[in-house]
Amino acid sequence: MVRHHIDPEQAEQALRRVLEPSVPLTAAQLGELAASGFNLDARIDTDRALRDEAVRQTRINTAFTGAEVAANNNISTGRVRNKAAAGELVFLLVGGAQRFPRFQFDETGRVLRGLEKVSPHVPQDWSWVGYSNYLAVPCMELDGRTVTPLEWLAAGKAPANLIANMGNNW
After folding, report:
1. Along the 170 residues of the chain, how does pLDDT read in single tens digits?
2. Is this model's pTM higher than 0.85 or not?
3. Taken in order 162, 54, 52, 106, is the CA torsion positive or negative?
4. How far, in Å, are 3, 79, 105, 114, 148 from residue 154 at the CA level?
5. Contact at 8 Å (CB) between 146 and 139?
6. Closest Cα partner for 152 from 142, 137, 143?
7. CA pair distance 165, 100, nearest whole angstrom
8. How far apart are CA 155 and CA 58, in angstroms?
9. Which listed residue, 7, 22, 41, 80, has the most CB atoms within 10 A of its CB?
10. Sheet holding 92-94, edge to edge
């Protein structure tokens, strides 16, 4: 899984540069984009992109520290680091410290059932946001209804089914 060093100010500056380019594309560049199927008339809503980035930054800032994960799960901080190194817990490096996004924990901060078996198999090119979205989108069949991967795991179903299904959704 791709891990990032996060600096909120640099992220906003970079996002603004991408959304508000100072140099227009050449006719050749526009032609290449059109030939590849890119919609040249599509427009990005700068305000929405900045709001989305603010939400992402809030999620990062509210992520658990290693000490919080350890306390919530009655394990040592060393065990948390081992789980992170094994890919069982998704983490980001923020200011040089591991932070663990909340999507992988229940409301009390405990690791969600079965997730430690799924997380090591997340494709390397997925971001933590993409993985979080995958877990929240209904895509599995359970008792005649479509459920999210998190609901699948909560019902005690096999993590192997989720792992096999990952390549079919992105």
Report:
1. 545 555 666 666 666 666 665 667 788 887 887 787 777 777 677 777 788 788 778 878 889 999 999 999 999 999 999 999 999 999 988 888 899 999 999 999 999 989 999 999 988 888 888 888 889 889 888 878 899 999 999 888 889 888 888 866 54
2. no
3. positive
4. 27, 23, 12, 8, 10
5. yes
6. 142
7. 24
8. 30
9. 80
10. 64-65, 97-100, 92-94
Exposed/middle/buried for residue 91 (C-beta within 10 Å: 0-12, 13-18, 19+)? buried
Q: Which two tokens stand for residue 158?
A: 């096999």
- Which residues lie below 8 Å from residue 10, measured CB to CB, with a gap of 6+? none
